[in-house]
Amino acid sequence: MQAECLRLLRTFADRLDPSYGQIGVGHASHGNAHTTLEQCLPREGGRNAPWRSIVESRQWLRGYPWVTVLAREHVARLGGIDALAGTGAFHRVDGLTGGGALLQATPDYHDYDQAAAERVFRVLAPVLRPGLPTPPPPDRRERAPYLIVYEDAATVAGRTS
Asked: Is the pLDDT of residue 160 over 80?
């Protein structure tokens, strides 16, 4: 099933020019439009609400689950496909026709854990949405873990916003 999901996402992403895509754990949210990262980021007047993050998705990456599709703008800001592949943070880095990339963090979905999320976060911090994530309240902690790093990507990347 994993291979088929990957093939489907890769085919879709290669034909279009998506600003974001993902395969990862989904957590129930208001309308399920939030990514895991967006659920944990401060709202700040709607700054990290899906309606805004979708519009800004070529500027700021919405998350970093097991498989992440990057827009061409993110790939360029991160130094290109070879630079991403050279980080060692990803099992697979595929360039897409439109200039984007499909990043697969680990060979198997079940191997994507907090350590893998940490590696991916460090590489993608320059293009991740700013803000200090906070763990979900106990009533929102579901069966699946929230595999994000509780640090502000802007600070880690040395930027102010």
From this structure: no
How far is Cα 99 from Cα 71, in angstroms, rounded to an integer? 7
Supply the DSSP string of 35-83, one letter for each residue. Answer: -HHHHHS--TTTTTSHHHHHHTTTTSB----SEEEEPHHHHHHTT-HHH
Q: Which amino acid is residue 50, in one-letter code?
A: P
99 φ/ψ sector (left φ>0, alpha ψ -120 to 50, else beta): left
Least confident interval from 23-32, 63-72, 132-141: 23-32
Of 102, 101, 104, give the one whose Cα is nearest residue 76: 101
- CA pair distance 53, 46, nearest whole angstrom: 9
Structure token pair of residue 54: 């979708």
Q: Put the strands of the sheet holding 20-23 in their side by side order.
A: 20-23, 67-70, 101-104, 92-95
41: pLDDT confidence band, cut at 50, 70 and 90? confident
Domain ranges in the chain?
2-157
Q: How far is CA 23 from the centre of its chain?
A: 9
What sections of 59-160 are H helices per DSSP?
72-77, 81-86, 114-124, 153-157
